[in-house]
Amino acid sequence: MCSKSLGFALTIFVLYFLIEPQNAFQLPDVVKKQVRKVHLRCQNQTGVPEETIVAAHKTMTLPNDPAFKCFLHCMLEMFGLIDSEEVMHMDSLLEVLPEEFHPKIKNMVESCGTKKGTDACDTVFQSVKCYIDVDGSFIKSAVDDLLG
User: Fold this and answer.
1) What pLDDT does 46 receive?
2) Which of 25, 37, 71, 123 has the highest Cβ tally under 10 A?
């Protein structure tokens, strides 16, 4: 598991990930570096090709691929957004995000909650897929800004 400082850095990443570009803040290089490390760690752990991750981002269509599903699980676990019982905790972002973003987060949480899958990786996959279905443009604009 990650240390408190890495957990905090990753929480900052998740916040940035969800904030619309016009309201985004500049992430410190140290946070970007930690995020890249976690990305690579999860990618190495799951074996998902970078091309699969890039394609999913471009199309906002999540591939039904076991390695990609486990990559998502790894990332969200590192961010502290899924617990050991495989329950999603996107609502924890309400504690740290400005109130202007609460309706979007609440809508995703209320609409989706945790979608139970066939295993831990599929649970995250089904939940994230639902979040995209509920407010894909919000997520897409944030990811576009994050990835440049």
Assistant:
1) 97
2) 71
Quote the CA–CA distance of 122 and 72 in Å, as a whole number.
9
Q: Where is 3: in which H helix or E strand? A: none
Render pLDDT for 35-73 as a digit per residue (tens, 0 to 9).
Answer: 778 889 999 999 999 999 888 888 888 999 999 999 999
Largest CA distance in the chain: 38
pLDDT for the residue numbered 9: 47
User: Nearest to residue 40, comparing CAs of 74, 88, 12, 13?
Assistant: 74
Phi, psi torsion values for 113, nearest 5 degrees: 55, -135
Residue 145, classified by CB atoms within 10 Å of its CB into exposed (0-12), middle (13-18) or buried (19+), is: middle
Q: Is 113 within 8 Å of 136 (Cβ atoms)? A: no
Least Cα distance to 81 among 137, 144, 26, 131 occurs for: 131
CA atoms within 13 A on the CB side of 65: 16
pLDDT of residue 123: 95
Rounded to 10 degrees, the C-alpha dihedral 40/72/61/23 comes to: -80
Query: Is pTM, for the whole model, over 0.85?
Result: no
